[in-house]
Design a protein that fits this description.
This protein is of the alpha+beta class. It contains 13 helices and 14 strands. β1 and β2 form a beta hairpin. α3 crosses α4.
């Protein structure tokens, strides 16, 4: 992360009034000649010995020897890092403080609110981190550009699934680790997996996607490094919280449709989602179909799963193994066939229009069971996919119009999102195969 420019730091030290800051915190300041005196907040004393000089904008305590600039004052009184202190002072080069209108007692200090509460339980702390990453996302052009490069710059997607960005600033917003509150909070984040044992953020430089249930409880977090060309060789580009995977992405869609598209990765699942195919979820890689997925399929009585794993050796093998497992549970499986060697996101970016072409590969999905494929209620389209199934060559031609499939009782509109979801879910485009 880029360091603050020296001229910015100097302007903060010179232009933000230390005297006004100290007064705004409720300290009793008394004029003494050209300077002001206040009881030092850094040690106990009855007679004020901390001098504030408006001319130099510095403070110095003759009792304990503490002194410094307005930045030092914020760092010491609020137990925050140098970076966080500067950020709080930087806005318009004026100190914006969350003052309490009810505080009447002298020598009370108004606390700067960090992104996490020191006494939060693990789930609350995790939610607060995800909220922080979500706000950071909106101020980070590099991650927005990454989504644009993947064809996923979709405001509803960003807010609906609370996408975030870990830009290495979380640590600056926490109390210093040599303080009790800082040590406890950092320890909690290490237990969760947000911080590593080294103190570094686990998801540094990553697009962050929380896996939440319909009540907003976070069970897993996925991170995708967005600066691949700058990473050291061997650095993992796909990250999760430590421990076994748990939870299902976009589980709300299971309530609306008994047919689910299952992708190998979240980027692929989000690709279907932004093009209108909202009945989609993702496993945690080719070997990442978990008991949580199967439990969700059973709970919501999913009848058909369209497996959209990558069309490579690993994806094909995993799709076959998964189909055998699901069909033993009474769930019909179909294979969405992409060009050889491709994944959903890559394919969607190479065809035009992507929505229609994705609709075609959904319709043309191959039945993976034994015997006669289940009879389809609607006539199959005679339009062929926009690529050669054997060579993978993508045809350079405009695709014909696809007649929309009418709604059926098994494919009703998505329900209203839970209260914790910030964006409204759009009406889905149900263009998937309906099996009798």
């Amino acid at each position: 992360m880029a360091r603050l420019a020296d001229d910015v730091i100097n302007r903060i030290k010179q232009d933000v009034s230390l005297l006004r800051l100290v007064e705004s915190q409720g300290h009793n300041v008394t004029k003494q000649g050209k300077d002001y005196v206040v009881c030092c907040p850094f040690h106990e004393e009855k007679t004020p010995s901390c001098i504030i000089s408006p001319k130099t904008n510095l403070f110095n305590c003759f009792g304990c020897g503490t002194g410094g600039s307005v930045i030092d004052w914020v760092m010491k009184t609020q137990s925050v890092s140098f970076r966080f202190a500067c950020e709080m002072l930087q806005k318009d080069l004026g100190f914006v403080i969350e003052s309490s209108t009810t505080a009447k007692t002298k020598n009370t200090t108004t606390k700067l609110t960090p992104p996490l509460a020191a006494n939060a339980d693990s789930q609350t702390a995790l939610r607060q981190v995800i909220d922080f990453y979500h706000e950071t996302f909106k101020q980070s052009p590099e991650v927005i550009e990454y989504l644009r490069s993947r064809g996923l710059e979709h405001p509803e997607l960003i807010d609906r699934f609370k996408l975030g960005f870990a830009n290495r600033t979380l640590g600056y917003r926490l109390p210093e680790k040599n303080r009790k509150a800082g040590a406890e909070l950092r320890g909690k984040l290490q237990e969760i997996g947000i911080l590593r044992d080294s103190g570094h953020e686990h998801f540094n430089g990553s697009l962050v996607v929380p896996i939440m249930d319909e009540n907003g409880v976070i069970s897993e977090v996925y991170g995708r490094k967005i600066l691949g060309q700058r990473l050291r060789k061997g650095t993992a580009q796909h990250l999760y919280l430590p421990g076994p995977h748990n939870g299902v992405w976009n589980v709300e869609a299971f309530k609306a449709c008994n047919e689910i598209i299952l992708c190998e990765a979240l980027i692929d699942a989000m690709t279907f989602w932004v093009h209108g195919f909202r009945n989609v979820t993702a496993s945690y890689g080719t070997s990442g179909f978990t008991s949580s997925h199967l439990a969700a399929f059973k709970k919501y009585e999913i009848k058909r799963v369209l497996i959209a794993y990558d069309r490579d050796a690993a994806g094909n093998k995993a799709a076959e193994q998964l189909a055998e497992k699901l069909q033993a549970e009474g769930i019909d499986c179909f294979r969405i066939l992409l060009p050889k060697g491709m994944d959903v996101n890559e394919y969607a970016q190479q065809v035009t229009p992507a929505q229609k072409t994705l609709g075609l590969v959904i319709r043309k999905a191959d039945f993976m069971g034994k015997g006669k494929p289940p009879e389809r209620q609607l006539e199959m389209t005679t339009v062929e996919p926009a690529f050669d199934l054997d060579t993978g060559e993508i045809f350079d031609q405009e695709q014909p119009e696809i007649e929309p499939i009418p709604e059926t009782s098994s494919a009703s509109p998505l329900p209203e999102p839970a209260d914790n979801v910030t964006a409204e879910v759009s009406e889905p485009h149900h263009v998937t195969v309906v099996v009798a």
